[in-house]
Design a protein that fits this description.
Layout: E1 10-15, E2 19-21, E3 27-29, H1 35-46, E4 50-55, E5 66-70, H2 74-84, E6 90-93, E7 100-102, E8 121-123, H3 127-132, E9 139-146, H4 150-160, E10 165-170, H5 171-174, E11 179-186, E12 189-197, H6 198-216
Parallel strand pairs: 1-4, 1-6, 4-5, 6-9, 9-10
Antiparallel strand pairs: 2-3, 7-8, 10-11, 11-12
The structure holds cytidine-5'-monophosphate (C5P).
Family: In the C-terminal section; belongs to the PPC synthetase family. In the N-terminal section; belongs to the HFCD (homo-oligomeric flavin containing Cys decarboxylase) superfamily.
Organism: Amantichitinum ursilacus
EC number: 4.1.1.36, 6.3.2.5
């Protein structure tokens, strides 16, 4: 049983990895199963939210209650988010967005030969940062996957992106796994969500963010 702590709230979630084309058959992507983001979409719906799920590359089935928008590149994800964001109360950015896209993309399949091939990479927009720095942003939740110095790097990220809440996890313990453990960072400090199935962790995250959201928006 999940208390309906997000009843009537509109929640936008990005999940999965973006994919940046190199040519007709190749591309660059990140390691991300999409499981954590999809679990959060389900948990938010259980909590009474109206959920829009912007999904990158993943083979996962749509969670119950989500309106799903499939995207490929970071630019596609940004466009989908921008089209929805004005009406949202809460934005949870779980997607593993590629940091770069390929400038010298080829329409046709590149034929291999003995030459060195150089990819030119240009930085992608930071979707979460662009939403969080809007004049009247929705309540923004970020994720930080780090392989070392977890708390230190995550704190810096929360500050840089101006997020009321950031969920930090170790790459080694989260990627592709059925379980996860998170450290939530907010103005009050650190809050550990111990290792559990991703849906359980997602439910606890939803409970925590709903409390912060309500404190920010007194009835
Ligand atoms: O900077 P880093 O990629 O580690 O930040 C992680 C957080 O920022 C995640 O919430 C991720 O979804 C979001 N992000 C984004 N757009 C990017 C890069 C990251 O929305 N281009």
């Amino acid at each position: 049983f999940q208390p309906r702590v997000l009843e009537g709230r509109k929640v936008l979630i990005t999940a999965g990895a973006t994919f940046e084309r190199i040519d007709a058959v190749r591309g660059i992507t990140n390691t991300s199963s999409g499981k954590m983001g999809f679990a959060i979409a389900r948990a938010a719906w259980e909590a009474g939210a109206e959920v829009t799920l912007v999904a990158g590359e993943t083979a996962l089935p749509t969670p119950p209650g989500s309106r799903r928008i499939d995207v490929k590149s970071a630019q596609d994800m940004l466009s989908a988010v921008n089209a929805e964001i004005d009406t949202q109360d809460i934005f949870i950015s779980v997607a593993a967005v590629a940091d770069y896209y390929v400038l010298n993309q080829s329409e046709q399949k590149i034929k291999k030969d003995a030459h060195i091939l150089t990819l030119e990479l240009a930085p992608n927009p930071d979707i979460l940062a662009s939403v969080a720095c809007r004049p009247r942003p929705p309540f923004c939740v970020g994720f930080a996957a780090e392989s070392e110095n977890l708390i230190e790097y995550a704190q810096a990220k929360r500050k840089r992106k101006q997020l009321p809440l950031l969920a930090a996890n170790l790459v080694q313990s989260a990627m592709g796994a059925e379980d996860n453990e998170l450290i939530l960072l907010d103005d009050a400090g650190e809050h550990k969500l111990p290792r559990a199935p991703k849906l359980d962790v997602a439910r606890q995250l939803v409970t925590h963010l709903a409390r912060l959201y309500d404190a920010d928006h007194p009835a």
